[in-house]
Give the backbone structure.
Amino acid sequence: MQTPLMCGVFGIWNHPEAAKLTYLGLHALQHRGQEGAGIVSGELQADHFSRHHARGLVADVFTEEALQELTGPRAIGHVRYSTAGGSAPANVQPFKVDTLRGPLSIAHNGNLVNFLDIRRDLEREGAIFSTRSDTEVLVHLLARARAPRMEDRVREACTQVVGAYTLLIMHRDGLMGVRDPHGYRPLVLGKVGGAWVLASETCALDLIGGELVREVEPGEMVSIGLDGQLRSERLYHAPDATPQACVFELVYFARPNSRIFNEDAYEARRKMGMQLAREATPEADLVMPVPDSGVPAALGFAEQAGLPFRHGLIRSHYVGRTFIEPTQSIRNFGVKLKLSAVRSVVEDKRVVVIDDSVVRGTTSRKIVEIIRTAGAKEVHVRISAPPTRYPCFYGINTPSREELIASRMSVEQTAEYLHADSLAYLSEAGLHEAVHDQLGPTRRFCNACFTGRYRAGLEIIEGRLPVVGNLPPETETAA
């Protein structure tokens, strides 16, 4: 898999070790972003929140000393992967500000596609921004809203933005979780003991010994107040806001042991592999995954095709973000550092290699070469999702359309570029069958990265989302 990740959020209310459980929750969500991590904590009805954030992995950002400084029985946390621009430390969330109504902290997963227009309007009115993140627009809108109830201020702010947002908001008197009316990004509600928990995925609940209560619904705003009671309201009335959860969460992003959008991620991927086998099984001797993301689909493919499943590629778990690269005398060094072929498995074999996507194609090409160098007789590449032809504007950092190989080349041309004997993708209908979705206007998943059918506000626009414009290279959006 070659696509960068998104962001993850975690929040907890009324637990004596709130910061430490948030740290563990973020560790479970580390796959959603590795550029930076942060936690904001506070006492109940406190006039001040504590914050610790930095670039890097969760285990590196939070030392024992840092966690001891994050006091109070409530906290929210964030792991990030920026979807545009650089990775300045100032953009690491959660953000924390002091307002006339007390301290406010916000963590955001998603993209606000009209944030540049809102930011320019706010700047004309005298607003000063300290980051290049789209999330800071929401901070300003919340601080300026005049409604007495926090829920109404959140509603007022959210009616002004377009795009994807899963929000955790910690204010003086409570904790809130919000999903946009289309529900692009996941958010689940759970409990650990008597404490409420909000998290991007259920795997975070599993790590802290929590239990899943339910999914926060698209367009729902849940609030926990000082009395510890959970309250639910509609964010705002949007009768045409059909659910549009990101299907790529189930294809790749969510951890296999998570349950999101009321689907089991592992089982969905296994079914994608089974459907792919029904559609495109070649004459072959074995099936092998590109680890780790291709494993469930490869198991399903092998089961349906009646072929042996083998681990023909081994992934190193000790690759850091930087390394000293030798001269070009070692071909494909970067990929070889992460993946190695098992010669005894692939030599003189016709192999089916299962991966979840081909984005630019450069990594897939190197993987095919590694397998061929290990002695494979034939290499047939199978992808457990449709071709990625369009960029995502809702929280995934995909390249521009010009960089996406499936938008420039046919399947046959792509196979030739990869040096594969054949290439096949899962059909769009097959993907939606695997995730219990119906194609058409009432479908519950967004598949714009495959089809180019973007939803801007309440209307579907073909091709390119016009409200996005061209983002300046230094601009950052929360993923």
Notes: Residues 263-318+326-442 form a domain with the Rossmann fold fold (CATH 3.40.50.2020). Residues 43 and 219 are 29 Å apart (CA to CA).
